[in-house]
Amino acid sequence: xxxxxxxxxxxxxxxxxxxxxxxxxxxxxxxxxxxxxxxxxxxxxxxxxxxxxxxxxxxxxxxxxxxxxxxxxxxxxxxxxxxxxxxxxxxxxxxxxxxxxxxxxxxxxxxxxxxxxxxxxxxxxxxxxxxxxxxxxxxxxxxxxxxxxxxxxxxxxxxxxxxxxxxxxxxxxxxxxxxxxxxxxxxxxxxxxxxxxxxxxxxxxxxxxxxxxxxxxxxxxxxxxxxxxxxxxxxxxxxxxxxxxxxxxxxxxxxxxxxxxx
Amino acid sequence: xxxxxxxxxxxxxxxxxxxxxxxxxxxxxxxxxxxxxxxxxxxxxxxxxxxxxxxxxxxxxxxxxxxxxxxxxxxxxxxxxxxxxxxxxxxxxxxxxxxxxxxxxxxxxxxxxxxxxxxxxxxxxxxxxxxxxxxxxxxxxxxxxxxxxxxxxxxxxxxxxxxxxxxxxxxxxxxxxxxxxxxxxxxxxxxxxxxxxxxxxxxxxxxxxxxxxxxxxxxxxxxxxxxxxxxxxxxxxxxxxxxxxxxxxxxxxxxxxxxxxxxxxxx
Lengths: 262, 267
Known about the structure:
By secondary structure, chain A is an all-alpha fold. Helix content of chain A is 77%, strand content 2%. In chain A, helix 3 runs parallel beside helix 7 (143-174) and helix 7 (143-174) runs parallel beside helix 11. Chain B contains 13 helices and no strands. The longest helix of chain B has 32 residues, at 142-173.
């Protein structure tokens, strides 16, 4: 265990050194990310000019969901995307061999291979959105709500990571998967609205199959102090079960791996 | 390079582009499926319209609007900016320059040749849309449909030329992909991709009317969903083609200047 913590430290340090080389990207990326957040906010501002509640959510409450969406996107782009894009490359070129030969768990190695801290700048945007939302509501979040939200941040990250592992597991079968990552991101776009906006089959999918509701809607509800204890426990249990399933899937598909070239 | 030679080369170029699209059909399908934004936006607007209609838009009008948006986006897509960036970085643009045909024509035929494959997706969506919303939400006037054809060509040209302009920037600054990010974000906000622009606040609408983006999505969609009369449609068409010429001029300038700076990397 201690060995893995030290390994994580080494991986983080090498990513940080690499990121320092591209510090100009930081400013430009930050600017573009800010632009994209605006595209998520604009429809909300427009919609709430016509109505005061949307599928049971008021404007500041919806802001919380957008805030969580922004936060998780920052986690995705800063910590999850870079490593796993690298794995797909490894699989295609056959260089995954070198990772598998190392005396540590392969999933751990590939998942921590690369971090792009500049990309996580959006964490600040998310905090600003939360602050603005609570300013509009006119009260600070409760301690219990914040604690529950923090736990759900953990499970949401776990879910996001597990979904990614599943996508990468698919890469062992279909190899050309670089646009699957793009596909994944475009599905994740649906997490920007409260899940009650969706109806019927989509709502079912976004809660149980691709659990977007567990990533943004539930944490937002927790922050607002509106999440019941039973839903909270189910969400945590569901996320853990999902992660276990993803791990099993990874083990299964890595067994299928045959090097691409010698 | 004579015009006659170019015209004779075009069918071959388009055939090559089409075969390429067929070869990478799985990839193309994933790209098509990634166009989820109209559906995500549809969910949001329907949730609003469930309680009361928004302006002249009821729930069915939104379904018509966003399915039309999906179709227009599918058929007027272009991705030359990324392609040019890649080719400038790899130096393979040099190969394109050696051919006795303008590189822009190669790019254009590649883009247009993917159309049949994209139609395979767009046509069923159109049929489903028609079945869902009924003919009363779709334009019946044949004149408007003729204008729509011209508007689709214009919409594609704006997308394509903007891509080329940003691609040409790569000749000056090595990588211009970030500019494409900014362009796309502006496109999302001002084109009507996120919702009918007429429902946006006055300020946004005023800005949008001075920008090319709504001619890429909003205007063709209006033509399809009977959101516009003949007179206005022609006026908008004139403005759209004005943007096409403007962008064409810009691309020509950027290309001439950029080509002088181009030095192929690699081999």
